[in-house]
Amino acid sequence: MDSREAEFLKRLMATFKIEAEEHLHTLSTGLMRLERGLPPGEGRELIEEIFRDAHSLKGAARSVNLSEVSRLCHCLESVFSTWKSGESAPKPALFDALHRAVDFLRAGIYAIEPELEVRETSATALIRDVEAAAGGAGAAPIQAGPGASAPEANAAETAVELPSRPAAEHGGSVEGPGRSDTVRVSSSRLDAILLQAEELLSIKLASAQRAAELARLASELQEWGRNGSGFRVDEEHFRAFKHALNTLTRNADRDNRTFASILDALLGDIKQALMFPVSTVLDLLPKLVRDLARDQGKEIDLVIEGGQIEVDRRVLDEMRDPVIHLVRNSIDHGIESPARRRELGKPPRGSIALTIAQRENNRVELRIQDDGHGFDLDGLRAAALKSGAVSAQSIAGISARDLAMLAFHSGVSTSPMITDVSGRGLGLAIVQNKVNRLGGVLSLQAEPGRGSTIGILLPVTLATFRGILVRVSERTFVLPTFNVERVVRVPQDAIESVEGREILLVHGEKVSLARLADVLDLPRKRPLEGEGRLPCAIIVRSTAGRLALLVDDVSAEQEVLVKSLGRQLARVKHVIGAALLGTGSLAPILYVPDLIHTAIAAPFGGMQAGEREQEADGQTDWRILLAEDSITARALLKSILETAGYTVFVAVDGAEALATLRTTEVDLVVSDVEMPRLNGFDLTAKIRADRRLSEIPVVLVTALESREDRERGIEAGANAYIIKSSFDQSNLLETIRQLL
Fold it and tell me: Domain 286-459: what homologous superfamily?
């Protein structure tokens, strides 16, 4: 195959993936709607629709030589055909197999193409699953489709390598058109962009003409200077020069207005080309809710409103994982089991509602509401105190709303154990960080026993925003306008000192005060002799709190163009980006949540996150007992732990581990579950039952990933439960760091 043919096939595969995603979306959402139940007329139309999509996907897969995808589509097509003809009807027993088949198709299509060669047995097994389920529902036998040999179609036992649900449901990223390097733009929108870009040609020519005229005038001035005339020229030459300069000024002003008009329109159309319906993020949620609810033995309805509202694709890409996490959090921690809901007098089926609405100032709001048990405020209080996020003194008079917001602090979790998907106290903190860095605002309303509502207010687009330019220590910074409540002049008698901290009185209200120069570790500006102007304070607010920042001066509020700091400077404290000003200079854009955390950290008491990390990193005498019967796994885990600086003792099973604990002092236990003589569950239970050992943290690292096994780990008293199939050494080390 020559390079041109290879390039053609690459482009063809990219086109196929875009088409395939549309068909898969129709199949997935169609099956979800059928499973929930529809009136007969609507059901027939939907069956016809998914039948056509299965048929179209089969043909498209054949055109790019994906035989396994084609075979499985043929199988689905056969099932839908029997539904169409009335030979059989959709039955609950069949839907699980059909959803697994659609998941397999998506995984196969987005995998590296050569890997499809080894997935044949998986496709065959899925075809057999669908056939068996369809046959059990009264359907006629289904042919495996073209390309299947008799031994393959009749294989007695074949292992399926496919995960039961997409990676995003385990906390990973979601691949698909929302994260693609290409976008689909209507031809009419492209035509409009092209026409406006062509208009810029006239501006280019005019700009060249103005430059030539300026060069001529400059040359005349230079010539006058060389002649030693001292700029004393005759009146006629002076009038001509003045007329040329006035004409040039008028023309430049006209060009500037024309250019600004064309550029604004062009930028507007390009922004529109990058706008996508919020549904591109939310379309995967019904399937996610279905699978997670079934996995946890819960019944949950998902309602989505406003998915047609369009938002910048970059905003959607950044918010995809946080939205998934919040929905998963509602399922994991919010919605109760059917039995528990009946005890509480609630309907057995829980409800999650996602509402998207346009707001003023070019913003959009996303609200996630569930009717679960709300936030465990007592558990949050205890977890926040344990993590050091707040002190006992500061939490004493905290409101219920502010207490619930502590769930978004890093390291605060009410989960009874750390697992591969929750319990680390990081998920909600990551959500808040994402929202803040997009310039959004997070809000929370929680009513114990009745549910919770999380609101996310986001900008519709990212390219520009309005900012307030401030001067501090002869430097210019930008504060995002959406974080600013007001700007006030500060007379000296408006500042008070309370418990060693400065407080600003603003219309009778007390607000914590900090000097921005001190927060940024810059030298304070000395007031000029006789300077009579009062200093300025900017009242800022974010989910981190509210603060008055004292600055030297406020220059202006203006629209600013945001420039990224790049990967190397992505984590610079207090700074979120850089603004390109009209002068051509760059000014740092300050990250208000960081400023507030730095300024008011002291009153909260306790160690801050960075100090806790330093203490943990500096600790070199932690002792860990590792219980693992597999020689290979034992060697791997021992190496990981010793490389991280821990002293490691090993045991080949639970019984030896228990004996070691009775003779050796250790700080934490890492254990497998399936071991001879004494398994990990029983080892954990015995540790908890021993008064001398009961406080030792236990981390279970195991291949057992069912909900029942995790519940056994909780009942036994494990602090963390890590699945080997999704094992990542950084997860293990982070978990241990949190527990020690």
Answer: Histidine kinase-like ATPase, C-terminal domain (3.30.565.10)
